[in-house]
Write a structure and sequence with these properties.
This protein is mainly α and about 220 residues long. The protein has a domain at about 35-150. It is about 95% helix and about 0% strand. It contains 4 helices and no strands. The chain has helices at about 1-20, 25-80, 85-205, 215-224. Belongs to the PspA/Vipp/IM30 family. It holds the Pfam family PspA_IM30. It comes from Methylobacterium brachiatum.
């Protein structure tokens, strides 16, 4: 049972790997789309973080301005002998300074995190561009591979068709040559038969009449 289980799992893994390899370009294209979507989300989150950091910086500026305003008022109150107002202002100023200190520390940590996110997003963008270039190369290579396979298939088919056509032409030429040879032989036989009967008729005295040279000589003498 263990061997059967291993065999089945191995077959499933092999089939999955074969399916993956056969569709590697499509899978890579989808993975790049997923990565691009994740990178776009990271960019949006970085933009939100930067906006929050900018708002926090403005809040710190506002706290600083309030501290300055309270400090100025407290100094003038103390100068006029209003210890009560000066003491109350000092309590508020101390609380604001503590808040400013805490928020400055948090803002510094947040700024460092933003810089880290910027580097990661930048690296992600560069890696995505590398993947896009790799995808284009892979698609071109795959297209060439498929074209080569198709070309070899078409070449094999055309070679087979050409071979059949050449064999048909050879058979046709052989048949035509045989017919020509037969016609030539028949003509020879007919000519031979015709010449044979003419010779036989001539020998028996029934052939085509021949002109007697003596008759020609007599005619010439008479005309002289």
């Amino acid at each position: 049972m263990r061997t059967l289980s291993l065999l089945m799992r191995g077959a499933i893994a092999d089939n999955a790997q074969a399916l993956h390899d056969a569709n590697a370009v499509t899978i890579l294209r989808q993975q790049i789309r997923d990565a691009a979507g994740a990178l776009a989300t990271a960019r949006r989150e970085l933009a939100v973080a930067m906006a929050y950091h900018a708002a926090e910086a403005r809040a710190l500026d506002a706290i600083g301005a309030r501290i300055e305003t309270l400090s100025d008022g407290a100094r003038r109150a103390l100068a006029d002998g209003r210890e009560d107002l000066g003491s109350e202002a000092a309590v508020h100023i101390a609380a604001l300074e503590d808040e400013r200190s805490d928020r400055r520390a948090a803002a510094a940590r947040f700024a460092a995190e933003i810089e880290r996110l910027k580097r990661l997003v930048g690296q992600g963008g560069e890696r995505l561009r590398d993947l896009d270039r790799g995808l284009q190369t892979a698609r071109t290579t795959e297209a060439l591979r498929r074209a080569g396979l198709e070309g070899r298939r078409v070449t094999a088919l055309s070679a087979g068709a050409l071979g059949e056509a050449e064999r048909t032409l050879a058979r046709l030429r052989e048949a035509q040559a045989a017919e020509a040879d037969a016609a030539e032989a028949l003509a020879g036989l007919e000519a031979e038969a015709a010449s044979g009967i003419e010779a036989d008729l001539d020998a028996a005295g029934y052939g085509r009449p021949r002109t007697d040279p003596r008759a020609v000589l007599d005619r010439l003498r008479a005309q002289a």
